[in-house]
Structures are given as C-alpha cells and as structure tokens.
Design brief:
single chain; Rossmann fold; four-stranded mixed beta sheet; alpha/beta
C-alpha cells in the first residue's frame, strides 16, 4: 500500500513540476542517482558544478563519479565558486506532491548558494520525504524539535513577470531545475 501511495505522490509531483518547466526523475539507489546526474550534466554541457555534499551524494559517491566524467567539482568555498559555477547540486528536505514544490529547511547558507546562484539547480530528494500537501508539510516543519533558521520553497526554475508583465525565466535564480528522487533510504540531509 505504501509503495502505491509513494508512486502516486511522485506522479503528482512530477506532473506539477513539469507544468512549470522543471525536469523530474526517480531512481532506486544513490549510485543510480549519481549516474543519472552525470548523464544530465554531460547532456547539458556542464564543465563545473558546485556540489553540496549530503547523504545522497555521499552514498552515491557523486564527487568521484562527476570528476571521472571530466567535470570540475567544487565542494567548498561556495561564496567564491557559485557565481561562476554552471550548476549546483543540493539535497532538499521535503517535496510537496500537490504543488510540485521542493522545501529547503536549513539555515546553511551554502545550501542556498548552491541552489540559487547557479544557472542549473539539481535537487536530490529522498522519495520518503514526499508529502501530499502544503498543510501536511507545514505541520511536519512545525513538528520538528527546532524550526530551521531558513525555510524556502522552490517551484520550478526561477521566473518573474514584473518587467512589463513579460514572463522571464532565470532572472532571480536558476534557469533550469532538475529534481532526482531516490527511493533508497540514505539518512537525513547533512
């Protein structure tokens, strides 16, 4: 039953995200996620990436996999490297199925740098972190032992229409959002 519910939530999330021009994938293991991310980076012509190492990317050995593909991986000094990085890889805390929205619930500034200052944001998320609704997500966040110093919601690539009401993508953040769900349990976002 739980697997069917998870599959249904994933389908709802994917549909909503694709409506706002996001890309969405699902894999079984962290290793498969690393291989998929390498494929996506190669297809998009990425030569360097800011990688915020978290449980999925650590378990999937992302840094080594990506470097073996000839792509430079930045794993620290994000204030200096993210303005020039071509992509950023982070792990988010939750995904809201009804909205196709990701939730960053973390005070870590590096998380925001690697997800907002780059042209392409690749977000990793545990499939177990899929939550059906915004209401349930807010209850989850409020139920944490301590509410994080920052909670951000990400729905698709950055978009604005505040300049003469013309929709523009990527003005205030990434032009592309790629979400990779991982079914394997890998622990908390680090």
């Amino acid at each position: 039953m739980k697997k069917n519910l998870t599959t249904e939530l994933y389908k709802r999330f994917k549909t909503k995200l694709e409506v706002v021009a996001g890309e969405c994938y699902r894999v079984n293991t962290a290793i498969e996620a690393g291989e998929l991310v390498c494929k996506v980076l190669h297809e998009k012509g990425i030569q360097n990436v800011a990688l915020l190492d978290a449980s999925i990317s650590k378990k999937g050995d992302f840094a080594n996999l990506i470097e073996k593909k000839g792509i430079t991986v930045y794993i620290d000094h994000f204030r200096e490297v993210t303005p020039e990085a071509q992509a950023g890889i982070t792990q988010v805390n939750y995904a809201i199925a009804e909205l196709g929205t990701l939730v960053q619930a973390d005070a870590n500034v590096d998380q925001r740098l690697c997800s907002t200052l780059i042209p392409i944001h690749i977000a990793l998320v545990s499939t177990a972190s899929l939550i059906p609704s915004l209401k349930e997500t807010m209850a989850t966040i409020h139920g944490l032992p301590e509410i994080p110093g920052f909670v951000g919601f990400i729905t698709g690539p950055s978009r604005t229409s505040d300049i003469e009401r013309v929709l523009t993508i990527g003005v205030h953040g990434p032009k592309q959002l790629v979400v990779v769900f991982v079914d394997e349990e890998v622990g908390e976002v680090a």
